[in-house]
Amino acid sequence: MRLAFLVSFAALTAAPAAAQDFSKVEIKVEKLAPGVAVLFGAGGNIGLSYGEDGNVVIDDQFAPLTDRILAAIKTVDADPVRFVINTHWHGDHTGGNANLGRAGAVILAQDNVRTRLMSDQVVRGDKVAASPKEALPVITYSDGVTVHLNGDDLKVVHVAHAHTDGDSLIRWTKADVLHMGDAFFNKISFPFIDLDSGGSIDGAIAAANKGLDLAGTTTIIVPGHGPIATRAELAAYREMLVDIRTKVAAGIQAGRSLAEIQASKPAAPYGMPDGFIKPDGFVETVYNSLKNPPKDAH
């Protein structure tokens, strides 16, 4: 799991996916509830709705993995993928869009996902080229949409300025499963909040709160990266975000520099020194987010 996470972010922030070595990546399927499964590989965790109406996937990782992803889906349901719902625009979640779009899948996402995929972007200082037409969502929404398939209602909810400005949470109403996308990084690293794509610490906290509102005590939660989680683990993640934000905000209020705040180690109690986002790196993100919040955040 940790290797897949590091590979996914290396591919997202460095060379194009085609230049990465995905030859050893295995796609593993875990059934979560009747008609619902998750696929782990190299990239964001893929949600799967399957049944009499065909397959719906939540995110699709990288283009070189599409054939393996489809083969893994066929071990659960032989039908083709009818719909793709993107939780946000990053390449480790949308890299397979073009392949699935050409094969006839209908792609859905929040308005800002299409906007960002249509033009060149910058992630952690690296340029990410615009996506081809086939990769673009053909149905977009502002606040949310509900997909009625496979005997369930998939409620898709936009959370603003969280990991990016186009994040969505997806909840299977009957199966009681919640896919958080990258609004939730579970145990494997401090979260990556993409400030260049409209993300913010306050939006990340609000997204975690929304996830807690949507989840019950027995809800199965799929993070964007990391193992399957419980509501209690999501609540702990939210408390971590709040605690670090509070400490950084207090440092800013006291006139301390970023280096001085980092020296106080506000993220140290939460471990994960070897994650993709290091403790000091996350503190820097929180600091920059508070100093320069998104202009239209509210």
From TrEMBL:
Alphabetized CDD domains for the sequence: metallo-hydrolase-like_MBL-fold
Location of this chain's protein in the cell: Periplasm
Pfam families recorded: Lactamase_B
Residues covered by the Metallo-beta-lactamase domain: 43-225
UniProt keyword list: Antibiotic resistance, Hydrolase, Metal-binding, Periplasm, Signal, Zinc
Signal sequence annotation: 1-19
Enzyme type, top EC level: hydrolase
Entry EC no(s): 3.5.2.6
Catalytic activity: a beta-lactam + H2O = a substituted beta-amino acid
Cofactor(s) for this UniProt protein: Zn(2+)
Protein family according to the UniProt entry: Belongs to the metallo-beta-lactamase superfamily. Class-B beta-lactamase family.
Record note on quaternary structure: Monomer.
Protein name as annotated: beta-lactamase
UniProt organism field: Sphingomonas anseongensis
